[in-house]
Design goal:
Layout (H helix, E strand, L loop, with lengths): L3 E5 L3 H14 L4 E4 L10 H4 L8 H5 L8 E5 L4 H10 L5 E5 L12 E5 L10 E4 L8 H15 L6 E5 L11 H17 L3 E5 L8 H6 L5 E4 L9 H7 L2 E5 L3 H7 L6 E4 L7 H12 L4 E2 L14 H12 L3
Parallel strand pairs: 1-2, 1-3, 3-4, 4-5, 5-6, 7-8, 7-10, 8-9, 10-11, 11-12
Helix pairs in contact: 1-11, 5-8
């Protein structure tokens, strides 16, 4: 029996990627929750292979018998994964999601990173289209059962508008918010439909003008609202999606569902690596650029976690 540990930290995107791949392997796994202390913020080249960035309580949860396989995501998990491999006498195999930095990269048996990052070819590098996640058909079916009655009075087609927002290099402006809301409202109005709108922490400062520009019936979830987040319900029940191209995770998740996906990706909002992702999604038939017209088409499913799980089984002979 192969023992698998998934190292799960406090960042939702890392958690989704790590658990999504661990589940897709189908071997069963133990989720090891990591809590960091200040030292974890140091560059990995200074940390090396160590448990030193963890709180004492979190460190106490990690011990023999060591796993056969470790799956982790993000820079801060890399020293912990390497420390587990060292403690196991080199027996534990390491799969790292997202590039962990140049220190100790040969210790990882597989590094999975998005192709749009344009990383140099390495023997242990596997390039993905988009990001893995833990959206599954079963979770979508469950969400549909929970949320269907909440949306039943909204006319179809229902277009989910998934809004990321500003990044370190680009600003999602009020003008962009109004333009996007106006365009998607017009798409829905032309078909007699409605919107399912979700904003995020990164668009909180322009949520008011975005919502004010919506001119059709809508269910709106503003980041920070009380109550359950309807995001999974939107994925399960929307007839089409419009996603801001700054969010790799939301683009990847929407492209899993096999309903039309349109990407809002102006250069003023999206950096070149995002544009490379968008083009890969267009080339694969998973998405189309937002033009303001709602078309009927059935894209293939972008199952990044499933593809990566198959690569892990092949390369590591699991």
């Amino acid at each position: 029996m192969t023992v698998v540990w998934a190292l799960v930290d406090d960042l939702p995107g890392h958690k989704s990627q790590c658990l999504g791949v661990a589940e897709a392997l189908g071997l069963g796994f133990e989720a090891q929750r990591l809590e960091y202390r200040g030292r974890a913020g140091l560059p990995n080249v200074l940390l090396g292979a160590t448990f030193g960035g963890l709180t004492s309580a979190s460190r106490g949860e990690l011990g023999p018998p060591w796993p056969d396989l470790v799956i982790a995501a993000g820079r801060r998990t890399a020293p912990v994964a390497r420390a587990i491999k060292k403690a196991s006498g080199g027996a534990a195999k390491l799969v790292q999601l997202m590039f962990p930095g140049n220190d100790g990269t040969d210790e990882f048996d597989l590094i999975a990173a998005p192709a749009h990052d344009n990383l140099p070819i390495r023997r242990n590098l596997y390039r993905t289209i988009g990001a893995p996640h833990w959206i599954t058909r079963a979770r979508l079916d469950d969400a549909a059962g929970v949320w269907r009655e909440h949306f039943q009075d909204l006319p179809r087609p229902r277009i989910a508008l998934l809004v990321g927002g500003s990044t370190r290099r680009r600003t999602f402006t009020e003008a962009m918010a109004r333009e996007l809301a106006g365009t998607v409202s017009a798409m829905a109005a032309a078909q007699g439909g409605s919107l399912l709108v979700s904003t995020s922490r990164r668009s909180a400062d322009v949520a008011d003008p975005l919502i004010a520009a919506i001119e059709v019936p809508a269910h709106v979830y503003r980041w920070g609202d009380e109550g359950d987040n309807p995001y999974f319900g939107y994925l399960a029940l929307a007839d089409a999606f419009v996603v801001t191209g700054d969010s790799v995770s939301m683009c990847s998740e929407a492209c899993y569902v096999t309903r039309p996906v349109y990407i809002y990706g102006p250069g003023e909002l999206c950096v070149p690596k995002h544009a490379r992702l968008h083009q890969a999604l267009y080339d694969g038939g998973y998405a189309r650029p937002l033009t303001g017209t709602l078309e009927k088409w059935t894209p293939p499913s972008l199952d990044t976690a499933g593809h990566l799980a198959a690569e892990i089984r092949k390369r590591l002979e699991i």
